[in-house]
Each structure stands twice: as structure tokens, then as C-alpha cells.
Design a protein that fits this description.
Layout: H1 2-20, E1 34-37, H2 49-54, H3 56-59, H4 69-74, H5 77-80, E2 97-99, E3 104-120, E4 123-126, E5 128-129, E6 137-147, E7 150-159, E8 161-167, E9 173-179, E10 181-187, E11 193-195, E12 199-206, H6 246-249, E13 253-268, E14 273-283, E15 295-306
Parallel strand pairs: 1-13
Antiparallel strand pairs: 2-11, 3-4, 3-6, 3-15, 5-8, 6-7, 7-10, 8-9, 10-12, 12-13, 13-14, 14-15
């Protein structure tokens, strides 16, 4: 039995790694402590049919190859260790319908990016992931209710952020905080049923990649550290030469807006599970206000369970 499970784990890791390297979708302050920025929330309409349809094969795997939550629960720590499965969202098998009435909870939500793109000029380019397999959001939960005749999900808690870094083809590295904090996602059509083809769309908040306690190489920070770079004491606020260093000396905690869209492609009524694909757009790191953030486009799969 142990040998069989080990073979299954190895097979699934190979599938995940192969997909991760797929070339699909080659299609970027003031001195206040907190600063809010717009994120151009016109998500490419999920490219809408095109981007989601491209993921159909991923979430519609045959039951014989799907690694479900039941399979994952049966694996021991030693079987999962070093395989990358801890960073993977479970697959859902089934095309049922789950009807909700009253207030419900969405729990164990997992959001796993498969493709990381950064906007360069007028198009998004593929990047190389530099972060180890710790970038998947997991254990997210929140409330489900009917609002204006549509299903609405409000994110409350969980591992809802992950510091991630990607590298552009030219070598530049782009850090960003992958997150869905304060997400409020509403169904794209009316009704109280979670079913295949249902879409949910909503906005979320992206906190600063760095906290106020972070100090840069010259000891400058948002709430601690020096007011200006050491060895430049002669350049004071308001004098010539200070303008180019103002953003470096005056750190900010920038909060930006993001947008995410989900499409349900699998529903297991017996287990209360839903799964599908997502496309998310958010801003990258601002280096605490000293640079213009790049637009990040993420595409992947998600899993959740309805209580």
C-alpha cells in the first residue's frame, strides 16, 4: 500500500511540474504612513472565455488522475515532504449542483497560481518563478450569502497572502504580495446554485510587500531607522537635490487594489466541494513608495468546500 501511494504521489508531482513550466499565455507617493493606489481594475475580462477555457483541461482531469482532498488526507507527512503536494490545491471530481439557502461558510479555500505574468509595455510576458513552493494561498474561509439575488462570498481569514518573486526575461526580479485580503466576490449570474460554469468576480486589497519595521540597506524605514541616507546629511527637505531622494527617504505603506475572477468547473455535492480556475490582477511591490509598481497577472486553479 505504501509503495502504491508513493507511485501516485510521484506521478502527480510530475504533472504539476510539467504544467508549471508551460509556455501558455504569452500575451507592469506622498510621505503619509499609509497610501492607497488604484489598480486599473479592468481585468482583461478573464480574457474571459479564452483564459478560462485554456484551463478547462486542468480542472477536468479524469478521476483516475485527479488528486482529491480524500487522497491528500490519506498521505502521511513523510509521503508529502519534498514532493510539492503541500503547495498544491486538491482537485474536485463531479459535475453536480450545490444549492444554498440562508447563510453558509466557504472553508478550506485554496488558490494556486500556475502562470505568473508581468506587464511590460502593452502586453503581459511570462516570467520565471523564483520563490520556492510556498506561494499557494490555503485555509481561506469566509461567509456566503445571497445579495441582490446572487451568491456573494466575503473573505474573512486564513493564509491569505504570500510573498512571491518572479524574474522577467531580461533578468529583472519583481516581488509582490500574492493575496486576496478583504475579497468580496459576487456571482456573475443570479440564482442560489453553485454549478459548473458559474463565475464569481470581486475586488480585494493588496497590502505593502514590506512592513513599516523594514529597514533598507541604509537604515531607513517607515516607522523606525534614519530619516535620510547616511552620508547625505547636507541634503535637507526643501533644498536642491532633495527631490530625487525624497521617496527614498520617506517610506510609505502602500495599499493597492486588485481584482480576481473565478469560474467553477467541478462540483462534488456529496463532499460539498467546488473547484475551477481563476485569473487575478494586482500590483507589485512599490519598494515602500520609491518606485512605480508593475501589473501582475496570475492564472491558476482553486478549490473550496461549502459548510
Amino acid at each position: 500500500m505504501f509503495a502504491l501511494k508513493t507511485v501516485i504521489v510521484c506521478a502527480f508531482v510530475g504533472v504539476a511540474v510539467a504544467f508549471q513550466s508551460s509556455p501558455m499565455f504569452t500575451t507592469r507617493s506622498s510621505s503619509s504612513t499609509v497610501m492607497t493606489m488604484s489598480a486599473e481594475n479592468n481585468l482583461p475580462k478573464i480574457a474571459t472565455a479564452a483564459a478560462l477555457a485554456a484551463f478547462t483541461g486542468l480542472s477536468a482531469m479524469a478521476p483516475s488522475t485527479a488528486i482529491t482532498s480524500e487522497v491528500l488526507r490519506q498521505l502521511s507527512y513523510e509521503q508529502v515532504k519534498g514532493t510539492g503536494l503541500a503547495n498544491r490545491c486538491p482537485d474536485v471530481v463531479g459535475e453536480d449542483t450545490i444549492s444554498i439557502s440562508g447563510k453558509k461558510k466557504l472553508v478550506d479555500m485554496c488558490i494556486e497560481p500556475k502562470i505568473f505574468q508581468v506587464k511590460e509595455g502593452s502586453e503581459y510576458v511570462n516570467t520565471k518563478l523564483m520563490t520556492r513552493q510556498t506561494y499557494t494561498l490555503d485555509g481561506i474561509d469566509g461567509d456566503i450569502k445571497m445579495a441582490d439575488g446572487k451568491i456573494q462570498f466575503t473573505e474573512k481569514d486564513g493564509i491569505d497572502y504570500s510573498a512571491t518573486t518572479v524574474q522577467l526575461p531580461g533578468g529583472e526580479r519583481v516581488p509582490f504580495l500574492f493575496t486576496v485580503k478583504e475579497l468580496v466576490a459576487k456571482a456573475t449570474e443570479g440564482g442560489s446554485d453553485f454549478k459548473v460554469g458559474l463565475g464569481l468576480s470581486g475586488d480585494f486589497r493588496t497590502p505593502s510587500y514590506r512592513t513599516g519595521l523594514f529597514l533598507d540597506p541604509k537604515g531607513r524605514g517607515g516607522t523606525t531607522g534614519y530619516d535620510m541616507a547616511v552620508a547625505l546629511p547636507g541634503i535637507q527637505n526643501g533644498e536642491d537635490g532633495d527631490e530625487e531622494l525624497y521617496k527614498e527617504n520617506n517610506k510609505t505603506f502602500d495599499v493597492t487594489d486588485g481584482k480576481i475572477e473565478f469560474q467553477i468547473q467541478k462540483v462534488n455535492k456529496e463532499e460539498g466541494e467546488i473547484g475551477g480556475v481563476f485569473v487575478s490582477r494586482q500590483k507589485g511591490d512599490t519598494d515602500m513608495g520609491s518606485k512605480v509598481p508593475k501589473d501582475i497577472l496570475l492564472k491558476g486553479i482553486f478549490y473550496a468546500r461549502i459548510e
